[in-house]
Amino acid sequence: MTIKQGSIKKQILLPLVIAMVTALGAFFATTYWSYEKELSRDLAHNLKDVEEIVKEEMSREVEHMDSLIEIIARDEQLASLFRKRDRNSLLEKLEPTFKHISSEHHITHFYLSDAKRQIILRVHSPERYGDIVDRVTTLKAEETGKTSFGLELGPLGTFTLRTVFPWHDAEGILLGYIELGEEFGHTAEELREMLNLEICILIDKKFLNRQDWEAGMQMLGRTDGWDIFTSSVVAYRTTKLLPKTIAEIYARQIPDKTNPYNIGMRSNGKHYRAVFVPLIDAGSRQIGQMVFMYDVTPLVLNTRKSIFFLSSIYLLLGGIIFVSFYILLGRIEEQLASAR
Fold first, then answer.
1. pLDDT score, position 142
2. Per 3-state DSSP, what percentage of the chain is helix, strand, and coil (rounded to 5)?
3. Low-confidence spans in the chain with pLDDT less than 70
4. Residue 259 has what pLDDT?
C-alpha cells in the first residue's frame, strides 16, 4: 500500500486537534456550569435569609408601632378633640408627636379615621382628608375589632408597613381607627447593610394614579419619574444603578413573572446578579416586583482567573504535544520517503 507524503500528519494531527478543541470546550462548559450552580446556590441561600430577616423586621416594627399607638390612644384630650372633629387642634397636638416618632422610629404615615373609616386627619399630610379608607388592613381591623397590620400600597404609591388600631373610648364605644405606617424603604436600607446588596421596588402602574404618585414622590423627596418604565414605577431604590440598567432588563419578556428569577448585568465595571421576586401586598395581590441586586464581581473575577490559568496550562501542554507529534510524524514521513 502506498502512503502519500503528509497523509500521516493529516490523519493523526487533525483528530488530535479536534479532540483538544473539544476537551477545551468541555472544560469551558463545565466551568460555566459550576459557576452558575454555585451562584444559584448562593442566591437561593441569600433569598431565604432575606425572607427571614424581612419577617423579623416586620414583626419588630409592628410591635413598636402597636406600642406607640396604645400610648397615643390613652390620651383623653386627644379623644375629646377627635369627637369634636377639631382638625386644627388635633394637628397642633399631634404634629410634635409625629416628628418625634418619625425621627426615632422611622414612622412615615399617621392617620386618624372615624368609625366609618373616613379620614379625619393625615398628620403626615394634613391637607388631604375626608376620603374613605378601604385598604385591607383597615377593613380587617373593622371586621375583627382587633389590631391589623400588613404591607400595603398607599394612594400616593408608597409601599408601607401599616398597623391599624381600633380606637375605643373608656366605655368601649368605637371612636375610629389610629393608623401608623412605616415606608418599606427603612427595612430595605437595613437589608442592604446586613446582606450587602442593593434593592429596588417596582410597582405596576395599573395600581397607581399618576398625579397621586408624583405627589407622593415629591413628599418623600424622590426624583424617579413616571416615564422611566413602560408598565411600572420605581417606588424605592438603594442604588444609583437605576433606572436604565434595570429598565432594560425589566422590559424583556419574562415567561413567568409570578416566581423568582435572576439575570446577570454589568454596571460601572462591576458584575451584578439581579433577582426579581414577586411583590405581594396584604391583600395577596401581586402589585410589582422586588429586585435584589447582588454584587458578584469577586466570584466572576475568580472564575475568570481560574479559566485563564487552567486554559493557559492546557494550551501550553497542548501546544507542546502538537509540536512534538508534528516533528515526530515529520521524521516518520521522511523515513518512509527514504524507504520508498
1. 95
2. 50, 25, 25
3. 1-6, 241-261
4. 57
Cell matching residue 320: 507542546
Sequence-separated contacts (24+) of 284-289 with Cβ below 8 Å: 285/207, 286/257, 286/258, 287/153, 287/159, 287/203, 287/204, 287/207, 288/201, 288/202, 288/203, 288/204, 288/207, 288/232, 288/235, 289/201, 289/202, 289/232, 289/250, 289/257
In this structure, how many other beta carbons lie within 10 angstroms of the beta carbon of residue 184? 25
CA distances from 284 to 138, 159, 227, 274, 321 (A): 15, 14, 27, 24, 64
Backbone region of residue 6 per phi and psi (left: phi > 0; alpha: psi in -120 to 50; beta: other values)? left
CA dist 27 and 180 (Å) reads 57
Q: What's the predicted TM-score (pTM) here?
A: 0.71
Predicted pLDDT of residue 277: 81
What pLDDT sits at residue 260?
A: 61
Sheet holding 286-295, edge to edge: 232-237, 197-204, 286-295, 270-280, 261-267
